[in-house]
Structure formats: C-alpha cells, structure tokens
Specification:
Distance between the termini: 71 Å
Number of strands: 9
Helix content: 40-55%
C-alpha cells in the first residue's frame, strides 16, 4: 500500500487516501452511463435511486479504515442492486464481460480488508467471497450465470490474495528492520563492553605507573633527607631525580588519562604520545632505582629476538613492579636482574632476586601471605604474563631475599632458520627459586 499511501514522495494520512479512493470510484460510476458506446447494453436512465446507490457503492470506502467489514458489505450490496435494476452493465452478459468502476470499488474494499484486517477478519472475507459470486450469478441473465460466477470469484479472490501477500511482505520487512535494529544494539553493547575492558586495562597501567614512580619518589625523598647533613651534593642530586621522576609520572598519567576521555571530547593525536617502554628501556629503569640507593647488578645474555609490543611492555612492567616491591620491602639492598634471550627454546627469561633487608636498615620484612591471596602487584604481574602466554614464579629464597622469575615466549622462528621447530621448554630448575605455591603476599 505504500504506492497508494504516498504522493510525490510524501506519505499521505490513511483517511485522506481512503477518501480519495471513494471519490475516484464514485466519479467513475457517475461517468459510466455517459461513456457507454452506441449500440451497447440497454441501461436504465440515471435517476435519484441511481445516485443513492452509487454513493452507497463508493463513499463507504472513505471510512473503511475504521469499519472494514460493514464497508465491504454495504458496497457489495449496493453494486448488486445497481446491476439488478439495470443501472450498470451485467458483469457477464450477451455483450461480454464488463468490469466497471463499481466492481473495481468492491475489489478495492476486499484488498484493503485483507491488507489491514486481522487474520480472523481476512478469513471471514474469504468465506464471503463465494456468497458474493453466487449472488452475482443469480442476478446474471440466463446462459451467462456460470461466466458471471467465475468472473466475480476470480476478481475478488485475486484482490484478497494480493492484500494478504502485501501484508505478509510488510511483516517480513518489519521483522528485518527489527532484526537490524537488534543487531545494531548488540553491536553497540559489544563496543561498550570493549571500551570498558580497555579502560580496565588502562586502570592497571595507572596502578603500575603510580605504584612504581610514587614509591620511588618516597624512597628517594627519605634517602635525600638522610644524607642532607652529610652530603649536600648527593641530596641535591636526589632532589633532581625526584623532580624528573615526578615530571615523567605526570606526563604518562596525562597520556593514559587522555585515553579515558569520553567520545564527545577531542581525540588526541596518537603520533604525539610517547611510545610504550620496551626491554631496551630496562637499563634506564635500573639507573633510576640506583639513584634511590638500590644496588642493582644487571646481566643480559643471548641475542635479542623479535618480540611483540605487548610482550615488550609486559617484561618492562614486571621488572618495574619487582623493583618497586624490593624498594618497599627490602630497602637499599643488593639486587640481581638477569635478562636471558633463549631463541633456541623460543623464550625470554627474566629473573630478579634481592638479598632481603640489610641488618639495621630499619626496613620492615615482607609480610606473610594474607588470607585474601596476593595483592594487586602480583595479580597485575600474573595477568600481564598470562596475556602473552608466559609464566611467572615468585617466592622467598632459602638463604634470604626474594625472587621473581618470568618466562615470556618468543614468536615462532621463520621456516628455514636454525631454531625453526624447536620445542618450547619449561624454565630450568633453580635451586634458589621457590615454587609459585609459596608466593609472597600483596606487594
């Protein structure tokens, strides 16, 4: 019905459409006697009953939207009376078949009822069609009753079937639109979930940055206060390091908080953001903790291999978190950091072990494992290492101190390389390394 309910691309109200159809059928019925050719069927001259019957056969179509069945019955009855009194040509007679405006009006009413009505109403119309066909056959002239019956039945059944088909297609279209809207809503929900997941990851990033840099600044401040009277130059150097660390912390916080801005805010240019730290940045990290008084011995073995950016960041953050925990729990102690590239085993091994608090240093020992399990530091390290397919072992050393042992898998070697097809081996046993079942408390 869209082609009937629109004009010049603009949808017309239903009442206006029905009124237009009623006027069109009425005008055609009134003009029919004037358009009959000479020698045609002998029709009764138009009079007052003719005008009334024509109006009854057309004007009810204007209220079809509200009264579909009464409209159809009134129109069909008026057309039957018009034909019975000879005001319009016989549907099938000696001159042949004649489907005039009045019959087209009834067919239109059947079409609209099948289109707009509920299934029960459409079924009732289908039952009334044989009654109308039989009535047409009764008023038809002898010898033409079968033809009249057949013509009326075909006309009304075609109108009814077209209405039901149009309604079914409209229902399919509405269902398709509803499914498309549901898919769009699901897509938006998935997008929102992805944003929330990314923001949770950024929150972990913020924890790593704040926990390390702020702890480092606190330790450096304490160290500067202790050497202030003995060595003013060293205190001044520590104050400069604190300032640099604070500025670096603010810069990285701004970069990460820019990611958390809403979509309505201006997007930042990713080309202006500093790159994520990699394994190559670990020596600079060690220099910053040495300035805080931590003695660090660094060893790197093997030939560096290609490593995804996520794995680079994971290794850096694990070393960063482990050093922060050492400063917090062991103070200015001796620490060994080893980075071993093992392409033959397709792995990168990172090991960080400290000697524990020095006697008389005043640093509180590491607390025992809490009933709630590891804290955010260890949990963050475990989540990071698990995300890249690696493993993490932490625990106290038998001779004192604490160890963090991480293994990060390297990408598969290209075909034809010396290490292609190597088996991924588990990390070698370390007699000083404790099993992960004895992980330390929240760090």
């Amino acid at each position: 019905m869209d082609w009937m309910d629109s004009f010049a691309g603009r949808r017309a109200p239903g009442a206006v459409t029905d009124a237009g159809l009623a006027l069109l059928v009425a005008a055609g019925s009134f003009a029919l006697p004037l358009g009959m050719p000479p020698g045609g069927p002998d029709l009764r001259a138009p009079d007052t009953p003719f005008v009334v019957l024509v109006l009854l056969s057309a004007l009810p179509l204007a209220v079809h939207r509200w009264f579909p069945l009464p409209t159809l019955l009134v129109m069909a009855t008026a057309v039957a009376v018009l034909q019975g009194h000879g005001y319009i040509p016989q549907l099938s007679g000696p001159e042949g078949t004649s489907i005039g405006p009045a019959y087209l009006g009834v067919a239109t009413a059947v079409f609209l009822t099948a289109l707009r009505g509920a299934p029960r109403t459409a079924t009732l119309v289908a039952v009334l069609i044989p009654v109308a066909a039989v009535t047409e056959a009764v008023v038809a002239p002898p010898g033409h009753r079968a033809a009249a019956l057949l013509t009326e039945a075909v006309l009304l059944v075609a109108a009814w079937a077209l209405g039901r088909l149009t309604r079914a297609r409209a229902a399919i279209r509405d269902q398709a639109l509803e499914r498309a809207a549901a898919l769009e809503r699901a897509h938006e929900a998935n997008a929102r979930a992805a944003v929330m997941e990314e923001r949770a990851r950024i929150a972990r990033e913020l924890h790593d940055i704040v926990a390390h840099n702020v702890s480092l600044m606190v330790v450096q401040t304490i160290a500067a206060d202790r050497v202030q009277d003995r060595d003013g130059g060293k205190a001044h150097e520590l104050h400069g390091t604190i300032e640099e660390t604070g500025r670096a912390t603010v810069t990285e916080l701004r970069r990460l908080l820019d990611v958390l801005r809403t979509e309505d805010e201006a997007a930042t240019d990713p080309n202006k953001e500093p790159p994520q730290p990699t394994v190559e940045a670990i020596p600079a990290l060690l220099d910053s903790v040495r300035a805080a008084g931590l003695t660090v011995d660094f060893t790197a073995t093997g030939t560096p291999a290609g490593l995804p950016a996520g794995s680079h960041l994971t290794v850096y953050r694990i070393v960063q978190e482990a050093l922060t925990n050492t400063l917090k729990h062991a103070g200015r102690t001796r620490t060994e950091v080893t980075v071993a590239w093992e392409p033959e085993h397709r792995r990168l091994t990172v090991r960080l072990c400290d000697d524990g608090p020095r006697p008389g240093d005043g640093t509180a020992p590491r607390p025992p494992v809490s009933p709630g399990g590891p804290g955010h530091g260890l949990l963050g390290m475990r989540e990071r290492i698990a995300a890249v397919g690696g493993s993490l072992h932490t625990g106290a050393r038998p001779g004192g101190g604490y160890c963090v042992h991480a293994v990060v898998p390297l990408p598969a070697a290209p075909a034809g390389s010396p290490h292609a097809g190597s088996r991924y081996d588990s990390p070698p046993h370390d007699p000083e390394h404790h099993d992960p079942e004895h992980d330390a408390a929240a760090r």
